[in-house]
């Protein structure tokens, strides 16, 4: 029924909200720890650290 659709949309919204909160928290902590890589090696290490985090990757590429 219609209530079922509402429930699905709400849970989807909550997941997105939680994800964006988690992402912003990750960004905050990353901003504190990430220094601009001075070498390819540092960049490689940094990149491996965020390779599973698309949000962080996109922010780094901007």
Tally of DSSP β-strands: 0
User: Main beta sheet, described?
Assistant: none
Strand content of the residues, in percent?
under 5%
- How widely separated are the two ends? 44 Å
**Shape call:** elongated
Mean pLDDT across all amino acids: 71
Task: Walk me through this protein's architecture.
The protein is mostly helical. It has one domain. The chain has 3 helices and no strands. The longest helix is centred in the first third of the chain and has 32 residues, at 2-33. It is elongated, with a radius of gyration of 17 Å. It starts with a helix and ends with a helix.
SSE inventory with pairings:
Elements: H1 2-33, H2 40-50, H3 54-61
Short overview:
Helices cover 82% and strands 0% of the residues. The chain contains three helices and no strands.
What are the defining features of this structure?
about 60 residues
């Amino acid at each position: 029924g219609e209530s079922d659709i509402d429930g699905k949309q709400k849970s989807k919204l909550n997941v997105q909200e939680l994800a964006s909160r988690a992402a912003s928290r990750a960004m905050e902590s990353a901003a504190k720890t990430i220094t601009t890589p001075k070498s390819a090696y540092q960049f490689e290490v940094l990149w491996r650290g965020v390779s599973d985090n698309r949000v962080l990757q996109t922010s780094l590429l901007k």
